[in-house]
Amino acid sequence: MVISWEEYFMGLAHLSALRSKDPNTQVGACIVDQDNKVVSIGYNGMPRGCNDADFPWEREGGFLDTKYAFVVHAELNAILNSPRPVNGCTLYVSLFPCNECAKAIIQSGIKKIIYESDKYDGTEGNIASKKMLQEAGVELQQLPYEVNVILKSEK
Q1: Measuring CA to CA, which residue among 107, 54, 96 is closest to residue 73?
Q2: Does the annotation mark 6 as catalytic?
Q3: H runs (alpha helix) in the chain
């Protein structure tokens, strides 16, 4: 069986997500150029140099007591860690980008987003994200299926 490019790149996004230490939401991203070459990958985590154990992963509580003040999202990590410009590339991401990531996606020149989950559809942040991305001409495509990654480890 040969998998499609979409399955392959979304699979890489899922594999990258497994690096995230977030106990609730592991998100992965994979940026690909026009020749189907991987440009960069990312996952949601703390900024470089910040010890994961020294920062909260909570979802509830005061702003500084939750992960939301500190975590770098998968999409932004992939953009920032790219060894070359991502202008004209496609972003594969396991969860539809938030409004903050949408800004970085637009500014970086990414032209297409292929995403899997849209679990925040209809929230204000999601509406803002979609409005900006559509206005900027970024193509949005939701996969009609979920991609599963099977890991086999023999230690």
Answers
A1: 96
A2: no
A3: 5-17, 74-80, 99-108, 124-135
- The answer to whether 10 and 92 have CB atoms below 8 angstroms apart is yes
Q: Are 92 and 114 in contact, with CB atoms under 8 Å apart? A: yes
The pair of structure tokens assigned to 148 is 């599963």
Q: Are 28 and 15 in contact (CB under 8 A)?
A: yes
Lookup result for tokens 């920062």 = 55
Of the candidates 6, 58, 60, 75, the residue annotated as catalytic is 75
Q: In what order do the strands lie in the sheet with 112-117?
A: 38-43, 28-32, 90-95, 112-117, 139-142
pLDDT at 152 over 90: no
Q: Is the pLDDT of residue 63 over 70?
A: yes
Q: Please give the distance of CA 112 from its chain centroid, rounded to a whole number.
A: 13
Mean pLDDT of the chain: 95
Radius of gyration over every alpha carbon of the chain, rounded to an integer in angstroms: 15
pLDDT digits (tens, 9 = 90+) for 12-30: 999 999 999 999 999 999 9
Q: How many Cα atoms are found within 13 Å in the side-chain-facing hemisphere of 120?
A: 16
